TrEMBL record:
N-terminal signal peptide: none
The RNA 2-O ribose methyltransferase substrate binding domain, residue ranges: 15-92
Organism for this UniProt entry: Amycolatopsis vancoresmycina DSM 44592
Organism lineage: Bacteria, Bacillati, Actinomycetota, Actinomycetes, Pseudonocardiales
Protein name: RNA methyltransferase YjfH
Family to which the UniProt record says this protein belongs: Belongs to the class IV-like SAM-binding methyltransferase superfamily. RNA methyltransferase TrmH family.
Assigned GO CC terms: cytosol
One of the GO BP terms on file: methylation
Any one GO molecular-function label of the UniProt entry: RNA binding
Length: 253
């Protein structure tokens, strides 16, 4: 926590890479781009267009080696020698959110969800449902990159993202802060529609194939299912997140 200078850049910015995503971010009046980093090998009309767009938006452009851009983008093939750090106004560290005078009452915790499309759709759904936070660990979950932003229809920039190291760390912090930790599991007797919830609750959404991992599973207060009378064994994790999110909306009304 502490002052602004001690907050990790990963808890303040979403980094987008590639010419088109960077130009789109610079052109969006609703976004604040902190800086553009351009590889010193980037030349020609594409680089000139980005420099013009950055100048028009009043955004500083820094030059760095092509290798440095690849490292910062976290993607060796698709950065095209350019990235932008976009300010995510609602993104912060989980520890900071829990230390608030009014900590979040309903949060989702992503555990092992590695498909960017699912992470993006969950961010979009949770934001639309007005949830207080989506905990996206830095390890074990898809990176918050242009694929996630695209799947969220751009909502990821404005989503209430809470960052931490791992899902296990998040579950420990939540438990210590007095949250009930609930996990979705197909065989649970209690359903999301009939569970009695405490004032503060976190809901764990597990990975596409393995579900909620054992490290988080041992900290779960109660397992919940989504009743499915039809002929299907499970829902895609982003669909399950939507059912859960809007059940919480219904209860709040």
């Amino acid at each position: 926590m502490g002052d602004e200078s001690t907050i990790s850049p990963k808890d303040r910015f979403l980094t987008v890479y590639g010419r088109k995503p960077v130009l789109e971010a610079l052109a969006d009046a609703g976004l604040r781009v902190d800086k553009v980093i351009l590889a010193d090998t980037a030349r020609g009309p594409g680089a000139a267009e980005i420099q013009r767009a950055a100048k028009a938006a009043g955004v500083p452009v820094q030059r760095a080696s092509a290798h440095r851009v690849k490292v910062l983008a976290g993607n060796g093939k698709q950065d095209q020698g350019v990235l932008a750090d976009v300010v995510a106004p609602r993104m912060r560290a989980l520890s900071a959110a829990l230390a608030d005078r009014r900590p979040p009452s309903r949060v989702l915790l992503l555990d092992g969800i590695t498909t960017p499309a699912n992470v993006g759709m969950i961010l979009r759904t949770a934001t639309a449902a007005g949830l207080d936070g989506v905990i996206v660990p830095r390890r074990g979950v898809a990176a918050l990159d242009p694929l996630v932003v695209k799947a969220s229809a751009g909502v990821a920039f404005r989503a209430p993202v809470l960052r931490c190291g791992s899902a296990r760390e998040a579950a420990e912090e939540l438990t210590e802060a007095g949250y009930g930790v609930y996990a979705l599991g197909a065989s649970a007797k209690t359903t999301v529609f009939d569970v009695d919830l405490p004032q503060r609750a976190a809901f764990v959404l597990g990975g596409e194939t393995a579900g909620v991992g054992p490290e988080v599973g041992e900290l779960v207060t109660e397992w919940l299912s989504i009743p499915m009378p039809g002929d299907a064994e499970s829902l895609n994790v982003s669909a399950a997140a939507a059912v859960l999110s809007f059940e919480l909306v219904r209860r709040a009304r």
